[in-house]
Specification:
The structure holds two protein chains of two kinds. Chain A folds into three domains: about 200 residues, 3-Layer(bba) Sandwich (FAD/NAD(P)-binding domain), CATH 3.50.50.60; about 100 residues, D-Amino Acid Oxidase, Chain A, domain 2, CATH 3.30.9.90; about 60 residues. Helix content of chain A is about 35%, strand content about 25%. Chain A is built from 16 helices and 19 strands. In chain A, the strands form four sheets. In chain A, strands 1, 2, 7, 8, 9, 10, 16 and 17 form an eight-stranded mixed sheet that branches. In chain A, α1 links the parallel β1 and β2. In chain A, α1 packs parallel to α9 and α9 packs antiparallel against α10. The longest helix of chain A is centred in the last third of the chain and has 21 residues. Chain B is of the alpha+beta class. Chain B has a domain of about 60 residues: Alpha-Beta Plaits (2-Layer Sandwich), CATH 3.30.70. In chain B, the strands form three sheets. Chain B has a two-stranded antiparallel ribbon with strand order 1-6. Chain B has a two-stranded antiparallel sheet with strand order 2-5. The chains are: A alpha/beta, B alpha+beta. At the A-B interface, α3, β11, α7 and β15 of A face α1, α2, α3 and β6 of B. The structure holds flavin-adenine dinucleotide (FAD) and iron/sulfur cluster (SF4). The site of iron/sulfur cluster has 12 residues of chain B, from α3.
Chain lengths: ~425, ~100
């Protein structure tokens, strides 16, 4: 029999769970956060960049105390073919402004810090415990089961990440499909801070974010990323699962090839591999939105698929944090009214609908479909590289006017395709 | 950086293997090669392979707990997939 009853049990001490735990404990509720890893963050990985705005609202100036790696001041998108690359760089003072800035993070440190904030506020953190199932009474979720233990609560928050086996058990969500998720792999490569700053043209403490499209996934839907940390680089690839089946190379092989690409190789030279990780990313946004709440239970963060896949970047942590916040607000009201029914917890959905979370997800709703176009990963990087080759490679053969060169290359893709895709892209955004 | 084999890569990670208690079990060994082939390609840890005699080889010890094989095999009844028990499995020190 359960020994005591909590106001709220949260499963998962990622950004979504710990944010909710922090805010609920701060409001005086009795909160238990259960995490299967030996410490918060020990099971989690991310590409690398946290947009600060949503956490900033909750813990102002968090970056001055949290273990963030570097503030991103330089963004680069690179189109790759097998031997060439065209990059676009973006640098702006605006990347530095409060609420607009972003930081690279490593999750083992960052998640421990955020879970620690929840503990400081009074939440109980139980690491090293895997929740196996939910307790139900009259169709309402009343707690969790972990091994032999049963623990009761007025409300359970499922913050258990993309696979969320528990949201399925709660009947809120159906099994993920291969076209709704991508698999991400990442190496953390150690390098001295000074080398990183010199190599990427950064001042002390500043960071760079790089996105790659094209040959890095061998034309498969997906892309590459590189983030600079204090003393390491986070280098990885992301592949939509559905498109991977026909691949000639395995995922680990493609990562090795990416590392030996002439553009990447010098960036990681003399680096030392210190960790290799993998994780799924929910990619279908609103098209995979589960039921977000039911009697006595809510689902937040990746477990609810709250990730924006904008092709050039994946954003999930700021949404996870904002959804944890929305859930906690709904629960604080539910507690005041002593009503944890679905009708009461619906406030969570209202809050999300009104926040950037749902608005941004709506804006990008058509994007995953748009990205399912193989030309984006094959013909277009090649097209751009070809145009630049014509502009910059001089070998003594007679030149043609640039207008003709561009047109010639564009014709190879098909002008109609090009216009169609451009229009689709504009519409998708 | 020199090319690194997947085994060497996993060797860099910290694992606390729950010996004798696999969290992923292949239930249906035969007749599922097409699905398992997808796992061979997609498993980030390279834990799936198909042997010359057509049998499947799988080792749960280097699992990164991503869930990729779970999603690929969903609905086929091939896999029994769970997270390792609390504290077991991979422990990311960077993440
Ligand atoms: C390759 C890659 C690149 C990405 N890049 C970015 C990026 O640059 N910027 C960005 O904002 N987002 C990025 N994301 C997305 C981002 O990482 C996620 O959206 C975010 O981590 C979600 O947080 P969460 O708290 O919802 O879930 P998670 O961080 O996954 O936390 C879930 C927690 O629940 C625990 N858990 C699960 N099941 C149980 C159980 N049964 N019992 C107990 N505990 C359990 C887990 O151990 C884990 O700690 C990326 C993701 C990937 C994979
Ligand atoms: S969960 Fe991921 S790492 Fe583990 S076996 Fe499946 S695909 Fe491989």
């Amino acid at each position: 029999m359960p020994e005591e009853k909590f106001d709220c049990i949260i499963v998962g001490a990622g950004p979504a769970g710990s944010t909710a735990g922090f805010l609920l404990a701060n409001a005086g509720l009795e909160v238990l956060i259960i995490e299967r890893g030996t410490f918060a963050g020990s099971k989690n990985m991310t590409g690398g960049r946290l947009y600060s705005h949503s956490l900033e609202k909750i813990i102002s100036d968090f970056a001055s105390v949290a273990p963030v790696e570097r503030k991103v001041v330089k963004e680069t998108i690179t189109m790759l073919t097998n031997d060439s690359a065209v990059s676009i760089d973006f640098q702006s003072q605006q990347l530095n402004q409060a609420q607009k800035e972003s930081y690279t993070v490593l999750r083992a440190d960052f998640d421990q810090w955020l879970a620690g904030k929840a503990e400081d506020a009074g939440a109980i953190l139980a690491p090293g415990v895997r929740v196996d199932d939910l307790l139900f009474k009259d169709g309402k979720v009343t707690g969790v089961i972990a091994g032999e233990d049963e623990m009761e609560a007025d409300v359970v928050i499922l913050a258990d990440g993309v696979n969320s086996l528990l949201a399925q058990k709660a009947g809120l969500k159906v099994e993920l499909k291969p076209n709704q998720v991508a698999v991400g792999v990442k190496e953390v490569i150690e390098l001295p801070a000074q080398v990183i700053e010199d190599r990427f043209g950064l001042n002390k403490g500043e960071g760079a974010a790089r996105i790659f499209v094209g040959n890095c996934t061998k034309g498969k839907i997906g892309g590459g990323f590189l983030y600079t940390n204090k003393n390491s680089l986070s280098l990885g690839l992301v592949f939509t699962l559905a498109d991977l089946a026909e691949s000639q190379l395995t995922v680990p092989q493609m990562l090795e090839e990416f590392k030996s690409h002439p553009v990447i190789k010098p960036l990681i030279k003399d680096g030392k591999l210190v960790e290799y990780s993998a994780h799924l990313v929910p990619e279908a946004g609103l098209n995979m939105l589960p039921k977000l709440y039911s009697d006595g239970v809510m689902v937040v963060g990746d477990a609810a698929g709250l990730v924006i896949n904008a092709g050039y970047t994946v954003r999930g942590m700021d949404l996870a944090i904002a959804s944890g916040e929305a859930a906690s607000k709904a629960i604080i009201t539910a507690k005041e009214q002593d009503d944890y029914s679905a009708a009461s917890l619906a406030r969570y959905q209202d809050l999300l609908d009104r926040s950037f979370v749902m608005q941004d997800l709506k804006q990008y709703q058509k994007f995953p479909e748009f990205m399912e176009n193989p030309r984006i990963f094959n013909e277009y990087p090649q097209l751009v590289v070809n145009i630049f080759k014509d502009m910059f490679i001089v070998d003594g053969s007679p030149g043609k006017p640039l207008r003709k060169k561009v047109l010639n290359h564009a014709k190879q893709v098909g002008l109609v395709n090009l216009l169609k895709d451009a229009w689709k892209g504009v519409k998708a955004l | 950086m020199k090319p690194i084999s997947i085994e060497e890569k996993l060797g860099v990670n910290k694992f606390n293997v729950d010996e004798g208690n696999p969290h992923i079990i292949i239930k249906k060994e035969t007749g599922n090669l097409e699905v398992i082939k997808k796992c061979v390609i997609a498993c980030p840890a390279g834990l799936y392979s198909i042997k010359e005699d057509g049998n499947i080889s799988f080792d749960f010890a280097g699992c990164l707990e991503c869930g990729t094989c779970r999603v690929i095999c969903a609905g086929t009844g091939i896999l029994d997939w769970n997270y390792p028990q609390g504290t077991f499995g991979v422990e990311f020190r960077y993440g």
